[in-house]
């Protein structure tokens, strides 16, 4: 899943607001072998308030433009039912909700539009910074929250086979929590639903290695490899080309993908 933000304040790539620029970046991610483009019109972390009208203006034309020029699936990161409804209507197939169904009507909109829905554990952090979060067992808390969110989604019409779960690295968690989630990821990937892991250049990488944003690629790729090895269905990244190569290498080692150009020792 390649990250395609149309925002002026994205935490890593600086964001982009021009439609043409955003479309070009999305198509470049597809060339780098993204299977899904995750379009966002509001920064998930702390940032300026964005009205529903502005979010629609940022997201919907980009979904339409990308869907008209590529075959890959489009995901939209939003917590607003109206944005989800409009996005699904013009070709999105996944709604990526980092709010933990703050508005349960989002699930209804997703169900009506026939989309998949990502349920993320945010630990009480919605567009904020975690302040001394405490968990008796962070993995147990994630599993319990997924179960609660899934129950709400099902009550609002979602089909169980259209739910995706995200442990929410760094959201409402300190670095030790995020590392524990990665360490115990097999417990999460066998639990209920396909799992999405979003490690890209996050503080769990920066704080673990003592590195700034621009130097967190290798750490991100290590988490990508571990995610795929331990059963994650989707990894969400900025650096698609490098991540795609890591994913395909792990899949080949696991016997889930054939080598693309095998010749060594195969001639007579």
Verbal overview:
With 268 residues, this protein is of the alpha/beta class. The chain has a single domain, classed as Dihydropteroate synthase-like (TIM Barrel). It is built from ten helices and eight strands. The protein has a six-stranded parallel β-sheet, covered by helices on one side. Helix 2 packs parallel to helix 3, helix 3 runs parallel beside helix 4 and helix 9 runs parallel beside helix 10. The model has no long low-confidence stretch (mean pLDDT 93).
Furnish the topology, listing elements before pairings.
Layout: E1 2-5, H1 19-31, E2 36-40, H2 52-67, E3 73-77, H3 81-89, E4 94-97, H4 105-113, E5 116-120, H5 138-155, E6 163-166, H6 175-183, H7 185-189, E7 196-197, H8 203-209, H9 217-229, E8 234-235, H10 240-253
Parallel strand pairs: 1-2, 2-3, 3-4, 4-5, 5-6, 7-8
Helix pairs in contact: 1-2, 2-3, 3-4, 6-8, 9-10
Output the helix-strand order. EHEHEHEHEHEHHEHHEH
Helical run tally: 10
Quaternary structure annotation: single chain
CATH class: Alpha Beta
The total strand number stands at 8
Sheet with most strands: strand arrangement: 1-2-3-4-5-6
Please mark out the parts with pLDDT under 50 across 5 or more consecutive residues, or reply none.
Answer: none
> Which outline best applies?
globular
CATH topology: TIM Barrel
Major pleated sheet: 6 strands, parallel
| Span of the ends, CA to CA | 41 Å
Beta percentage is 5-15%
Name the helicity range.
40-55%
Domain unit count: 1
Radius of gyration: 18 Å
Tags for this model:
globular, 268 residues, alpha/beta, single chain, TIM Barrel, 10 helices, two-stranded parallel sheet
